[in-house]
Write a structure and sequence with these properties.
Helix content: 40-55%
Structural class: alpha/beta
Shape: globular
Order of helices and strands: EHEHEHEHEHEHHH
Largest sheet: 6 strands, parallel
Oligomer: single chain
Strand order of the largest sheet: 3-2-1-4-5-6
Length: about 250
């Protein structure tokens, strides 16, 4: 992937991995547009990075995605990189008398439906460029799930499968399809305590390794794998799935 001279839209760009990628791409001289739910954070980040733009979007709201698409197509018609990064993770309990199905559906709407809606809406714009790239954040937990985040893990497994099909369907177009499955990283995805958990990979280290890998030839699989996610990604292939699953999900 060419790392300079691109026009890049990053959803979930106001925190965590999305913000880290936005700041890294901006520092490389790209035209970066971040999209998120919190206007105050958008204003703070764009003010700190002259030339960066921000747009408001709620990935659970089809109308908000339509407005975002219209804004991008009118203001940034040379968009050639879409980073589907917005996502939420929620604890769920399915072993009680009452199931919080609204939580489940909110994860599906954000992590799956929102990604599909935005990608479909922006594919014509991406397809008009000489070359374009779609990067979608999945998770190492798509390959070995945690029992207490069932829908989050399943949503990322869905995206992994969908991206393989999308990559094949777009193989004759100048659009690269890249999957980015992070390991456990110091962000606030699952709560504030995750950002300081010493067991998690420091965010800066993760972003630096990702940028280095993106600058190299893309693997045939289309997957950008930092070293710390390989144990999860390759667990089944290496015969380590039962052990790793048991470690993540103690009895």
């Amino acid at each position: 992937m060419h790392l300079t001279g691109r026009t890049i839209l990053i959803t979930g760009g106001t925190s965590g991995i999305g913000r880290g990628l936005a700041e890294a791409f901006h520092s490389l001289g790209n035209h970066v547009v971040i999209a998120g739910r919190r206007q105050a954070l958008i204003d703070e980040i764009t003010a700190a990075h002259p030339g960066m733009h921000g747009l408001l979007v709620d990935m659970q709201d089809p109308r908000a995605i339509a407005r975002l698409t219209e804004d991008v197509q009118s203001r940034f018609p040379d968009l050639d990189v879409l980073v589907n990064n917005a996502g939420i993770s929620r604890l769920e309990a399915w072993d009680g008398d009452a199931i919080d199905i609204d939580t489940t559906l909110s994860v599906i709407e954000t992590n799956i439906v929102g990604v599909l809606r935005l990608t479909a809406a922006l594919l014509p714009t991406l397809g008009r460029q000489a070359s374009a790239t779609i990067i979608t954040t999945t998770s190492g937990l798509a390959f070995v799930p945690r029992f207490n985040y069932p829908t989050y893990c399943a949503s990322k497994a869905f995206l992994h499968s969908w991206l393989q099909s999308l990559r094949h369907q777009l193989r004759h177009k100048p659009i690269d399809v890249i999957e980015l499955p992070p390991p456990y990283v110091q962000t606030e995805l699952a709560g504030p305590e995750q950002a300081s958990d010493p067991a998690a990979m420091p965010l800066g280290d993760y972003i630096a390794e990702v940028i280095k890998l993106l600058g190299a030839p893309t693997p045939a699989s289309g997957e950008i794998l930092v070293e710390r996610v390989k144990a999860l990604r390759m667990a089944e292939q290496r015969g380590a799935y039962p052990e790793i699953y048991a470690n993540l999900n103690p009895a």
